[in-house]
Amino acid sequence: MIAVRDICIRTETVRQTENRQLLAVLDDVADGRASAVELAGDPGSGKTRLLAGLAETAAGRGFTVLRGLADPAEQDLPGSLFIQVLRGWLGLADRAGLREELLAVIRRIATSVDDGTGCPTPERLRALLEQHTCRGLLIVLDDVHAADPASLALLDRLVRWPVSAPLALVVSYRPRQAPERLRATLARGSQLGTVRRTELAPLGLTQAADLLDLNATDPRLRLLHRDAHGNPLYLQALARICPGRQVGRPDGLLADLRGLPADAGLPDVLARHLVTELSVLDPQQQTVLAAASVLGDDIDAGAVAAVAGLPEPEVCRLLDGLRRVDLLRPLFGTTRSVFRHPLVRWLVYDGTDACWREAAHRRAIAVLAARGAPVERRALHTERATPGRDPQDAAVLTAAARAALRGGDLALAGHWLSTALAAVDRAGQATDPGHRVARELLDTAAEVAARTGSRALLAETAARLGHVERRGRPARADREVRADAPATGEAAARPRPAGGTGRRAVRALPAARSEPAGDAALSALTGREREIAELVGTGLRTREIADRLGLSARTVEVHLARTYRKLGIGSRAALVRMVVQSAA
Asked: Which pLDDT value is given to residue 12?
């Protein structure tokens, strides 16, 4: 279990360099100089936590600390960011004259209409700061990328012409979401030497180890660091969601929303952090983002338009807006987009209406099929659209299992096989009149058994697909089959047939090839051939069988070639299936 610290960990303990850079502005002010710094970082990189630590330190040194947090919902309120700051100062003012001046400036800003320069009452604000800042004043402006134009205009004046007072100004923002006006202001301040820049880069492995209380050599550390992109908030969230996570595939299965515990949930702080961003989207943006969450890594305008049910030109415009607010990011070198992190996609996906989401997955399947997308990608959507509601579902999932086998991913092959079985159960045997899908499932399960040495999945597949149930009188004895192998999953939950005239009878599925079944087939083998065949049925490979029997691998291969000819089969998987059927 990973001992994750509190989500509001004092980020300055792992960002010591950046913390020292921020504290330097307090030293400048203590020496009688005005100082300003921009704090740039992605969502969740730790800006707000660092600012809180800075404010706490400043208050301890006797500074007056004023704060403002820009709100995207207040874009139409001129100067709202600075009105917050001045109202905070009003609450701390201990002189009647200062309170009256603060109220006057607040009224002027609130009632101002941008003139040609877009800058209401800058000189009045400057005079107020210069006349009443004597002991040290810290103004912390957070999320300035979301500030209204009038607030940005006031900030521009303070940066270009710093006040002659012991004032420390800290401007925190997200670079990817910063409007052109803010970028120009900070660039100009850097050129003039009035603003220093502190950037919060992704954490390194050593910093991530300290954040999560992990040993630097712990293999989980690299996986979590990779999947979180070095982001502190995502690191802690993933460590809490999957404390023992040992995922080895790129993107850690999180990218396709699988591989997480059934009861996994976003930590409250992260959920609130993301919900705040989503709450300002209009209904069409929300629909497009929901469609993108269904598609995952297939976020292009055409596919999103088909899934969302909106015109493609309108979707292009909406996707561009979602990229500007950094919920989506452009995929380098393409016209496609991705979510800024899979956790963002998870939150969006999980918040959509379940019925709409299932229909959206069906629309996604149609889009991918029309584009000739790999079957594995169609299977991801089939799995989340109640497998079996479409007659083609089982075939798609079985093909995905075969593809996983070719790629050597036996665990994923088993997953798709189990999902295909659920699809067959829901759709019923009538949707597979030629038993083609059932035979393919049996062959695939047999190959999995041959490679893994485990016959559990094959036994379940044979029990659930190898027989077609029907009600009525018992069938003839030569058609009645009992599945003695232990069932798993849904099969284990079903009641077993009871004895007597009311019991269910089962009819054997037609064989995939014209080959004898059961002991009748194996009785044609010699004692050594049957012994080798039974060992193959347990999943042993040729070298393992040779070592067990004291034979050469070449001798075992010769016996197997003779066995294939006698049984009229052509593969090891078919032999495994016959051995299992003979034991049933």
From this structure: 63
Average the pLDDT over 401-429 and give the result: 86
SS3 8: coil
Structure tokens at 412: 């994923």
Question: Is residue 188 helix, strand or coil?
Answer: helix
154 CB neighbour count, 10 Å cutoff:
26
DSSP assignments along 102-164, one per residue = HHHHHHHHHH----TT---SHHHHHHHHHHH--S-EEEEEE-GGG--HHHHHHHHHHHHS--S
Burial category of 414 from C-beta neighbours within 10 Å (exposed 0-12, middle 13-18, buried 19 and up) = buried
Hey, which of 12-26, 264-278, 355-369 has the most confident mean pLDDT? 355-369
Report DSSP state, residue 62.
T
469: left (phi over 0), alpha (psi -120 to 50) or beta: beta
Q: Please, which residues bridge with residue 35 across strands?
A: 168
Q: For residue 471, give the 3-state DSSP assignment.
A: coil
- Calpha distance 382→348 (Å, rounded): 19
Tens of pLDDT, residues 482-538 = 233 333 333 333 333 333 333 232 233 444 344 444 566 778 888 888 888 888 877
| CA dist., res. 120 & res. 108, Å (int) | 8
- In this predicted model, what pLDDT tens digit does every residue of 128-137 receive, in sequence order? 888 887 778 9
Q: Rounded distance, CA 235 to CA 5, Å?
A: 11
Helix or strand run (H / E) with residue 363: helix 354-370
For residue 167, the Cα-to-chain-centroid distance in whole angstroms is: 43
* Gap between the Cα atoms of 551 and 545, Å rounded: 8
Q: Token digits for 147?
A: 């500030």
Sign for the CA dihedral angle at 317, 320, 326, 328 comes to positive
**Whole-angstrom Cα distance, residue 124 to residue 109?**
10
pLDDT class of 28 with cuts at 50, 70, 90: confident
Q: Are 38 and 197 spatial neighbours (Cβ–Cβ below 8 Å)?
A: yes
Q: Which residues pair with 40 in a beta bridge?
A: 173, 199
